[in-house]
Amino acid sequence: MTIKRLGLDIDGTVTSPKTFLPYLNSSFNKKLSLTDITQYDLANLLNITQEEFFEWLKSNEETIYSNALIAEHAHPILEDWKGNYELFYISARGNHLLDTTKNWFTTNRVPYHHIDLIGKHDKINSIKKHQVDVFFEDKHDNACDIAEECDIPVILFNTPYNQGAVPSGVKRLDTWPEARNWLQQYNKNGRA
């Protein structure tokens, strides 16, 4: 199979997984580092209710997403890929953040062909609709579900909050250069 269309999560994948930390620390009087974020459920980690967390997120998301730092080494690799692959970003962000998201992509000169903000973590229908060939993700259960339901390879960027066993279709990698090398090998051999 020749890979033509890359599916990419945004938050914690293209943006740094540390993006939320200064806002969490400031708002909740914490001194958290990335190694302290050992679960995806931040409400549980902060010892607040889901409702309290979503209210906090709702009032802060535009600022956080507008000022997000791009993940280390992601920019030159995405820039290199834009001529060889179609870049489809599929994110759990709500569609009300489309202008904020596109402005961030423009400001940071991050190439894209399509942005789909679906407002939920279940990305399977969007991945199938856009006929994505491989997906890049940071959320453990998303990576596992996508690999199994869509029968495509998934790159899971390794973080303290996404540990756990993964099926054979999920490749856990630490860096964007490793992802670039994986994709080159896959295209060369039909597997990596």
Automatic annotation (TrEMBL):
Keyword Hydrolase among UniProt keywords: yes
Keyword Hydrolase: yes
Keyword entries, A-Z: Hydrolase
Record EC number: 3.1.3.-
Alphabetized SUPFAM superfamilies for the sequence: HAD-like
A molecular function (GO) term: hydrolase activity
Leading EC class: hydrolase
Domain of life: Bacteria
InterPro entries: 5_3-deoxyribonucleotidase-like, HAD-like_sf, HAD_sf, Nucleotidase_putative
Family: Belongs to the 5'(3')-deoxyribonucleotidase family.
Protein name from the UniProt record: Nucleotidase
Organism in which the protein naturally occurs: Guptibacillus hwajinpoensis
Lineage: Bacteria, Bacillati, Bacillota, Bacilli, Bacillales
